[in-house]
Amino acid sequence: MTLLSLRWLRLALPCVLVAGFASAEPQTLIFSHVVSENTPKGKMALMFKSMIERRMGDQFQIEIYPNTELMDDDEAVVAIAEGRIHFAAPSLSKFEAYTGQLMVYDLPFLFANMEAVERFQNSPTGLNLLTHMQSDGILGLGYLHNGLKQLTANRDFTRPDDLAGLRFRTMTSEVLQKQFELLDAEAVPMAFGRVYQALADNEIQGQENTWSNIYSQAFYEHQPFMMQSNHGVLDYMVITNTDFWNSLTAEQRQEFRFAMEMSVKYGNAVALAKNQNDRAAIASMSGVTLHEPTLQQLVQWQNAMKPLWQEYEPQIGADVIEAALDANQTPD
Ligand code: LMR
Questions:
Q1: How far is Cα 245 from Cα 56, in angstroms, rounded to an integer?
Q2: C-alpha to C-alpha distances, 54 to 21, 47, 59, 141, 155, nearest whole angstrom
Q3: Tell me: the pLDDT tens digits for 50-100?
Q4: Is residue 299 domain-resident?
Q5: Which ligand 1 atom sits closest to the C-alpha of 192?
């Protein structure tokens, strides 16, 4: 039996999620994610593990599976809902099967910058979205930043119609797929763990992601043309299973919340630094041409993609879009 199937066997065991019963052995909690450890999410997960084990190691041990070792994000969302794993931090684009409202994060050019994203996430509307999927078994414990997405391709582009005919990888989000269809490109929804090889095999010719993901996954090896488009946000929701959470004591929940808040703060600081450093590292690569669009060019991209705001308003809710736009205003 392989190591992986042994892990699966353990995941499938009944009662694995029930906390709070008297046991000499600490309970093993599973945290699954798809990025490498040297990323904002990877580092956040490690910090979370270390805080929980330092403060409650006699009760809980956390096993982290990075790099899609255990499952991809779409599977992780289902596994959380079904109570087969305990923690995950999928991108906000991966909850479409459970709620339309989170699609707000996929609307292109909605948020002016990451400060606006942060303000929206801390607003009553943003916080409310964390608890929206509770009845499906998914509880959001908090948001974690990665950053703004950039466009990359295997041929030069500056205008929206330059991408026509290319196959672009997207996350499994209808909004993101439509975004490329509006440009007459072909959207190819694909799990993150497959993207590098699909680029290498020319199965896809372009993709969108943050600087930290483009760098840590070495997408630049097959994407010599990039544009600093900042056209969308890639942030995460740290989620747990509702029944698992409710089975904890108030004291345990407080400890988990504290560890989560601290590790998210740390992860956000890593995200800020990494996206700056990784952008600089990519920009200095001799094989990469990084285009910084003029204001006029950006307006062309915005005009091409913005029809999605209206198209998805019924699913997202006009009030949610309004609250996101309000967050673009800098407070006095
Ligand atoms: C993606 O699929 O591109 C991202 O969700 C990967 C990640 O978790 O940052």
A1: 15
A2: 20, 10, 10, 20, 49
A3: 999 999 999 999 999 999 999 999 999 999 999 999 999 999 999 999 999
A4: yes
A5: 2
| Helices H / strands E in the chain, number of each | 14, 11
Q: Residue 6 domain-assigned?
A: no
Question: Is the whole model's pTM more than 0.85, yes or no?
Answer: yes
Q: Kindly state the average pLDDT of the residues 116-133.
A: 98
CATH number of the domain enclosing 233: 3.40.190.170
Q: Tell me which residue has its CA closest to atom 6 in ligand 1.
A: 192
Tell whether ligand 1 has an atom less than 6 A from the beta carbon of residue 216. Answer: no
d(CA 80, CA 139): 9
Of the candidates 220, 230, 206, the residue with the CA atom closest to the CA atom of residue 283: 220
Q: Is the CB of 146 under 6 A from ligand 1?
A: yes
Distance 192 CA to ligand 1 centre (A): 6
Question: What is the mean predicted confidence (pLDDT) over 270-286?
Answer: 97
The packing angle between helices 250-283 and 40-56, to 10°, is: 150
The token duo for 274 is 């990494």
213 lines ligand 1 (CB under 6 A): yes
What's the rounded Cα separation, in Å, for the pair 49 and 71? 19
Q: Binning pLDDT at 50, 70 and 90, where does residue 23 land?
A: low
Gap between the Cα atoms of 88 and 85, Å rounded: 8
| Domains identified in the chain, total number | 1
- Give the range of the structural domain holding residue 294, as residue numbers without chain letter: 24-326
In ligand 1, which atom is closest to the CA atom of 171?
Answer: 2
Give yes or no for residue 91 CB within 6 A of ligand 1.
Answer: yes
Q: How far apart are CA 40 and CA 263, in angstroms?
A: 10
Whether residue 14 lies inside any domain: the answer is: no
Cβ of 35 less than 6 Å from ligand 1: yes
Cβ–ligand 1 contact at 120 (below 6 Å): no
Is 207 touching ligand 1 by the criterion CB < 6 Å?
Answer: no
